[in-house]
């Protein structure tokens, strides 16, 4: 499984949300999702991440926040085609 949310800065990746978060049910979340993906599993975390990205991009169009998973990107493209 891949990281979903990735925040990049000039020097590379700043923080991300990955399987350590969305598959974990015991530890405390310390990543970019701020707990919304924690222990939710991949599919639910993907939906949450799409919501995060659109909200963050609306607030700050210059933010470098993206989905970082081929599977997630394929799913996103497929949903756009169905609209």
Explained architecture:
The protein has helices at 19-22, 41-59, 70-82; strands at 5-9, 12-17, 65-67. It is of the alpha+beta class. The protein has one domain (5-82). It has a 3-stranded antiparallel sheet with strand order 2-1-3. The protein is globular.
Strand content: 15-25%
Number of domains: 1
The total of helices stands at: 3
Major β-sheet profile: 3 strands, antiparallel
pLDDT below 50 for ≥5 consecutive residues: which ranges? none
Core attributes:
83 residues; three-stranded antiparallel beta sheet; 3 helices; alpha+beta
Task: Describe, in short, the structure shown.
With 83 residues, this protein is α+β, with helices and mostly antiparallel strands. The chain has helices spanning 19-22, 41-59, 70-82; strands spanning 5-9, 12-17, 65-67.
Secondary-structure map with pairings?
Elements: E1 5-9, E2 12-17, H1 19-22, H2 41-59, E3 65-67, H3 70-82
Antiparallel strand pairs: 1-2, 1-3
């Amino acid at each position: 499984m891949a990281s979903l949310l990735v925040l990049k800065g000039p020097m590379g990746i700043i923080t991300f949300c990955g399987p350590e978060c969305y598959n974990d049910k015991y530890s405390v979340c310390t990543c970019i999702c701020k707990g919304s993906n924690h222990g939710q599993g991949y599919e639910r975390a993907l939906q949450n991440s799409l919501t995060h990205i659109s909200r963050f991009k609306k607030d700050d169009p210059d933010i470098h926040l993206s989905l970082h998973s081929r599977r997630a990107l394929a799913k996103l493209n497929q949903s756009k085609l169905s609209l």
